[in-house]
Amino acid sequence: MVAQRYARRPRELRALETALAVLETEISYGATPLAEAFDSVAQRTDPLVSGLFGYARDELATGTGITATDAWQKAIDAFVPDSALQGEDVGVLRGLGPVLGGSGCEDQVRHIRLTMEHLKATRIRAEEEALKNVRLWQYLGFLGGIAIVLVIL
Length: 153
Known about the structure:
- This protein has helices spanning 2-28, 34-44, 47-61, 68-79, 87-96, 105-152.
- The longest helix is centred in the C-terminal third of the chain and has 48 residues, at 105-152.
- It has 153 residues and is mainly alpha-helical.
C-alpha cells in the first residue's frame, strides 16, 4: 500500500497540472463563471482528480452564499484523505484558493500558472521519490509476507 501511494502521487500531480490548465482555459478564454468552470474541469479531467473540482462545484452550487475561496478549501479538505497528496502538495493547492473568484481573470490565470509551476516542481521530486521508494516498499512487503508464512509454519 505504501508503494502504491508513492507511485500514485506523481500521477495525481500530473493530472492536477492538466486540470488546472483546463481551468485556466475556462477562465481566460471562456470567461466561464467559476461553478461552471469547476463542472467543466470535473467532467473533462482524469478521475484521479476530478473529484476535487466536483466537490468545489458542489460547494458553490449549494446556494448558501459560500465564497469561492471557502468552496475550494472545503473541496481540498474532502479530497485529500482519499488521495496520495502530501502536505507540500496540499499547501500549493490551498495557496490558489484566495485568488479564485476574488480577483480579475488575468490575476486568476497568473496564479493558476504559478500553481501549475509549483505542482510541476513537486511532481518532479515525487517522481524521484517514487523511483527510490516504490521498489523498496514492494520488497519489504514481499519479505514481510514470507516472514509471516515462516512464523506460521
